[in-house]
Amino acid sequence: MNVENKIADASPAGTPPASPLLSTSLQALDPILTKVTELEQAIASIADVGDRAAAKSARKLQRQLRKLEPTITMIGQVKAGKTSLVNAMVGWPGLLPADVNPWTSVITSLHISPEAVTGNRASFKFFEGEEWDRLVERGGRIGELAGRAGAEDELQKLTEQTLEMREKSRRRLGDKFELLLGQEHNYGYVDQELVERYVCLGDDFETDTDTSNSQGRFADITKSADLFLQRPEFPIDFCIRDTPGVNDTFMMREQITIRAIRESRICVVVLSAHQALSTVDLALIRLISNIPTREVMIFVNRIDELSDPATQVPEIEQSIRETLQEHKGPATAEILFGSALWANHVLDPKAGELSEASAAALENWADDRLEDGGNKSDAEVAWELSGVPAVYAALAARIDAGIGEEAVTKAAKGAMNLVSSITTSEHIVAMRLSDEAIAPLDRSEVPAEFNAIEARCMELLQQSFNDVLYDFETRLERSHKGFLDRATGSLIAHLEKNGETDVWHYDATGLRVLLRTAFQVFSRNAQSTSQKVFLQAAAEIRDIYLRAFNVPDDTFRLEAPPAPYVPSPVLLGQTIALDLGKGWWNRWWQRRKGYRNYAVAFAEMIESETRPILDGLKAEHAQSVSEDAREVLQEFLENQREILLNLCSQADTSTEDLIAAGKTAANREKSKALEATTATLTKYAA
Q: Is 268's pLDDT higher than 60?
């Protein structure tokens, strides 16, 4: 990829000051920071006590722990105020353009850090030529679907729209148009004008004489935007991913949103209080139906536009839950209410006074929700009722129980193994200084034994995953065939009963439920298989320690790494032909004549539509889980190989050399510090 560094460094002018109210809300993340800090200190003490090899491994664990960056993906309805909410959540009103033209399909990731290491910066990536060609030549996902269905009029309409978009892009970017595809632009600063140049389309580019800095100049070829922000209010590194609305002409946004959700662990669905959730949002419901309830939450925005929030909010919540239950969505998901407008107003009062209607809604909501509102300032009341503090409290709970706990557990188990290696080292030194023999296992055989364990466990993992993958693929194909047979049978029965004039419809929910169930079985089997092999590898390596170094069997521990996380099968929410509106389906129906033509055409179209979903589940999801498991096991084995070989060299060192190297009884008193460290690690490694 070609990279263009537009500005190496720049003044952070325009960066808003820190917000005390946001800082208070972000204290919900403090427990996670406390765990990470305590664990980092424990690992640091290991580096102080251990030798050079242990210190090296400890620093590696610390680096891995510091990489913790919980990622939150924001999805939702167009015009629900999602971007305004994101701006409020980072304490930067107006940073991201809230009024984005429907053409844009940019995913914007805000990487927030409390540390001012590199300052604010930005990176924008453009579509690859192949991705752009897929859109402009075939009309994206909807064009492929229309082509399969033989919808010539739909294809013609899409062709005209894409040609219009391409010509506007050429006029705006000139000769650089093709050269820009696949490139990346980097900047050493972030401000609203810069962001708007890449993610927001302006109204009339043709009137600009100099478009180098005009709004939206690169918007329709920008694929992703990464903004790196230093915000002192945040106690830990954090990432908020703002996605385009789900529905669009070419289904590009849907594909982008699916990838974004899969790459994060928590999804916030932003709805408008005026729209709430209805059958119009079935594409949205389909996506979140494939995310575990514990990893999804709903925020109903714009309650400032309600005339009576106290009365209307419970009604809206009830309506949302009924819709979710009716369409097999996460009916028990947590639902929060608020107003990004109120939050941004508190952060930037200079933006203007609240309207009378908004102020009245705020007062109405305060009377209903706050018992001690009289003890708070107007700004504190508006901030609390905006919902941002509640959002961060809910996110913190999910992070603490999810990705945060996993990162801490993994680091703690790795550190426990370092403690075991140091304890073994001290045990070896003690025996060498007392002239005890260490000869249950010829240590020259350790590398060969370890290689055998590595080969055996890697092969076992591969064979076990082959069985898991085969079972998964069999379940998928069986569910897929069963659905096609039932759907085709239903179509034929309809034709025999009603003839060809009565349009037939069929719900694809049944297929998604079957495929989701198959994936859940795969997920359980994959994690169980991984853990079983990891435990076996740890047990066999532990046996080498026991036989090679005479370490006490009852006290020596070797922790197996945790099984890798299995991402949610969000791909199941992808729109297929059966999900499209009645108008589109009616036109498909009217093009067919004769029972056999209906049945054959339907089966071929649905097979073509659903086959990419099955292939994606097998490749993008299942195979990637298998690869992740192999990487985890390989890393564990490599760490243990290095430790064992280092211990072998110590065991063969002469008494004089050990004393010269500082391995004396007095020096070993430092190992007493490991007792407190072990207590900390045990707390987090469980």
A: yes
The two beta strands, 222-230 and 121-126, are: antiparallel
Q: Which helix H or strand E contains 366, and what residues bound it?
A: helix 356-369
Which has the higher per-residue pLDDT, 376 or 389?
Answer: 389
**Residue 496: both structure tokens together:** 């025999």
Phi, psi of 242 (to 5 degrees): -95, 120
Closest CA to 92 of 84, 80, 104: 84
Q: Which residues contact 461 (CB under 8 A, 6 or more apart)?
A: 529, 530, 533, 629, 630, 633
How far is Cα 637 from Cα 457, in angstroms, rounded to an integer? 10
Q: Which range (64-78, 226-240, 444-458, 653-667) has the least confidence?
A: 653-667
Q: What distances in angstroms separate CA 79 from CA 85, 115, 234, 301, 659, one per listed residue? A: 11, 33, 28, 10, 72
Task: Give the pLDDT confidence score for residue 454 in this predicted structure.
Answer: 96
Q: Is the pLDDT of residue 1 over 50?
A: no
Phi/psi at 387 (5° precision): 95, -10
First CA to last CA distance, the chain: 43
Beta strands in 482-565 (DSSP E): none
- Strand ranges (DSSP E) for 331-414? 334-337
Least confident of 56-60, 175-179, 286-290: 175-179
Give CA torsion, residues 334, 338, 344, 346, to 10 deg.
-120
Q: What is the chain's alpha carbon radius of gyration, rounded to the nearest angstrom?
A: 30
Q: State residue 62 phi and psi, 5-degree precision.
A: -65, -40
Residue 12 has pLDDT above 50, yes or no: no
Question: What is the spatial order of strands in the sheet that 3-7 belongs to?
Answer: 3-7, 184-187, 121-126, 222-230, 107-113, 238-242, 71-76, 266-272, 296-301, 334-337
Most confident of 53-62, 377-386, 423-432, 489-498: 377-386
Would you say residue 595 has pLDDT above 80? no
How far, in Å, CA of 398 to CA of 386, rounded? 20
3-state secondary structure of 73: strand
Distances (CA, A) of 369 to 320, 464, 623: 20, 54, 49
C-alpha 423/C-alpha 558 separation (Å) is 12
pLDDT, mean of residues 100-113:
76
What percentage of the chain has pLDDT greater than the value 70? 78
Q: What was the pLDDT predicted at 207?
A: 39
* Maximal CA-CA distance, the chain: 98
Q: What does the alpha-carbon distance between residue 583 and residue 580 come to, in Å, rounded to a whole number?
A: 8
Q: What is the phi/psi pair of residue 228, to 5°?
A: -110, 115
Burial class (CB in 10 A: 0-12, 13-18, 19+), 163: exposed
Residues 6 or more apart whose Cβ sits within 8 Å of residue 490:
504, 506
Instruction: Check: CB of residue 94 under 8 Å from CB of residue 192.
Output: yes
